[in-house]
Every structure is written in structure tokens, then in C-alpha cells.
Amino acid sequence: MTTFANRYVSVAVEHAFGDAQSVDAYGEVDEESFNETFDVLQRPDMNRYGAQKAVDSKHYASGSFSMPLQPDQFTMICLHGVMGTHTQGSTPGVNDKLEELATGELPSYTFRVGRDDKEYTFAGQVIESISVSSSVGEYAMMTVNTTGCKAQHKASDGSTISLGSLATPAYTYTGDAAHFVGAYVNFEDLATTSAYSKLVQSIDFEISTNRDMDNSYTLGSDTCVRAPPIQLREISGSITFSKAVLSGDVAVDEPDFADLLGSGSFHHGTASNPAISVLFQVDSDNHIRFDFFKVHYDAPQTNVSGRDTQTMTVGFTALYDETTTDMMEILFSSEDTTLKGGSNVDIDTLSS
Questions:
Q1: Which DSSP symbol is given to 212?
Q2: Which terminus of the chain, N or C, has less C-beta within 10 A?
Q3: What's the domain count of the chain?
Q4: Tens of pLDDT along 41-84?
């Protein structure tokens, strides 16, 4: 009989790429999909009408999982995978920061997945992208995509990891996740529970590291021997407003239709007044805020029909800001006992 208690996804920060580690945190994941894939090399020749030989080629594993957005250690470890630097607040777990890593490598991870009968191990995984979304009537959601070494493989010594016995997950965060009532979007200023736009209907954005899988292989191995290198970092998203935003509707510097089609598509904020700020709040002690300092908006899209009222959707791209020397920053507070209190852990130290 299926035992839901033994279905889980755990994460551990690796000390070296592919050096499979035990659990750092379990996530309250809605759904997961981790699988190994391999290419097939076929060998045709000129005197046969079809290929007569084939061999497995490059092996790799990739994963994807979705979960409600909440400020627990699992979520913060994953977000750390696209940011790279954790700076604790004056009180750990209160106004901690995740900032973009200027030099060096982002961490790699071991994900362990419990599936009814056995535990599957995916070591040598890096975060390819993270998407966050929030819309009316829903929990705020986070989707994480990973890529890296083949399944059940320990890259540090080339050994095979056996399917494991199922674990019993334990959680150190007891709060809820953020939902639409606690989602606040502000423009040209920090989002708070009192300073936000009352016109935003939904927002989504993706942080992508664009990993170069081809450059993670070398001769003599059928899978990655190093972390797939990061290429151009990209952050893009879209915002839907409950109506076409006209100049008379602007209350907190929302991008308005006419301005966007004129000269107002580029917005350069500051650390204290980011171009777009998005707060996801569970309560005063548990929240996550994403600040994008410099953005370029796409042309606004709006329409009406015989059944639907008018809305306006605007895409945006976050850009590198020369003053803050990054593209974005994450601020969070959490009652997770591994992030706050006497047992708090600096996420940066998990890789050592």
C-alpha cells in the first residue's frame, strides 16, 4: 500500500561537485520529476540501409519540483543556488539577505527523492532556474529546475549509489506558505504590507543561470565531471494589472500604458527604491522579498472581448545595476529553527 509519509524530496549542499551528501533539509513539495536521460549514438554505414549498431552516449539527470513559496530552510537553500551569498541579519533569521555571487561557483546539491518503495539519489545537481508566481485566489508558488550528473552516481569517485531505504522526513518550519492575500508588489520603492500597488492581479518571474551542459563533460566519462558552467544570467517576468493602467490610475509609480509606449520602458531604481519589489508575507516573522533594481519593460498588452473585462499585461527583464553591482536581492525572515535561534545555520557554510 502506498505510504504518503515516505514520499519526499530532500536537499543537501555538496562540499565538492558530485560528492553525495546526507540531508540538510526536507521540502514541502507538491510534485517532483527527477529522471536520468541519455543520448544514443547510432552507427550507420554505407552498405546497409539502416544503422546496425548503437551505444549509450552522454548521460545526465535533470529534475523539476513545485511547491508553495515559504521561508523555510529548504526554500532558502534552493534560492541560494541561484544567488550564492547568504548574509545573516543582526539577529540570524531576521532580515537575512541572499545576494548574487560576484566571483566563484554557485553550489551543487544532492537531491534524495522518496518514492513509495525506495530512495533515489541525484547527486551533482545544480540549479538551472527558479520560477516564482502569484495570482489571485492561489498560494504563491515556486518551481525549481535542476540539471547535472546521471542518477545514482557519485562524481567525486565515480562510484554507483545503490537505491536506498526510505527515510522519515522531519521539518523545522511549522508555518504556512505565502498566498495571494500576503503578496505585495511595489514600483520604484520597497514593497511592504502598506506600500504596494492595488492594481496588480498577478506576477511571475524566472531567474535562470543558463548552464552549459556540453562543457561539463570530458573524454573518459559518460556524465558530468564538473558543475555545468554558468552562462548569461537572465531574469524575466510579467505583471498583469486588473485594468489598463492610464496616467490617472498611477498611485505608486506603476508603469502606465502611454508612458510604456513612449519613453518610460526603462526604469533604473536603487537599493532602497528598486524598480520592482515583490513581498510574500506569511506573517511579520516569516516573509520573503525580491528586489529588482533595474528593469526594462516590454510593450503593454491589453484587449477586451464579449466575455472578459480589460486587463493589461507587461513583460519585464531585470538588468545588471552598476551601482548595486547586481541584478536583484532577496531579503527574508524565518521562524525555521535552522535559520533562527541558537541552532541557526549560515547557508554559506553548508558547502564546507
A1: -
A2: N
A3: 1
A4: 999 999 999 999 999 999 999 999 999 999 999 999 999 999 99
CA pair distance 67, 145, nearest whole angstrom: 12
**Is residue 43 in a domain?**
no
Burial label for 327, CB within 10 Å (0-12, 13-18, 19+), is: buried
Report residue 76: phi and psi, to 5°: -70, -35
Distance (Å, whole) CA 91 – CA 139: 28
**Residue type for 89, please?**
G
Whether 3 shows a pLDDT value over 80: the answer reads no
**How many whole angstroms separate alpha carbon 115 and alpha carbon 134?**
29
Identify the residue whose cell numbers are 538588468. Answer: 319
pLDDT surpassing 60 at residue 1? no
- Cβ(312)–Cβ(297) below 8 Å: no
For 80, 144, 219, the CA distances from 76, given in Å and listed in that order, are 6, 12, 36
pLDDT digits (tens, 9 = 90+) for 8-21: 999 999 999 999 99
pLDDT in tens, 190-248: 999 999 999 999 999 999 999 999 999 999 999 999 999 999 999 999 999 999 999 99
Encode burial over 90-127: b for 16+ CB neighbours within 10 A, e otherwise.
eebbeebbbbbbeeeebbbbbbbbbbeeebbbbbbbbb
Q: Give the domain extent around 168.
A: 4-35+54-351
What is the torsion angle, in degrees rounded to the nearest 10, for the CA atoms of residue 150, residue 153, residue 155 and residue 160? Answer: -150
- Phi and psi torsions of 6, nearest 5°: -100, 15
Confidence (pTM): 0.95
Alpha-carbon distance of 312 to 61, in angstroms, equals 39
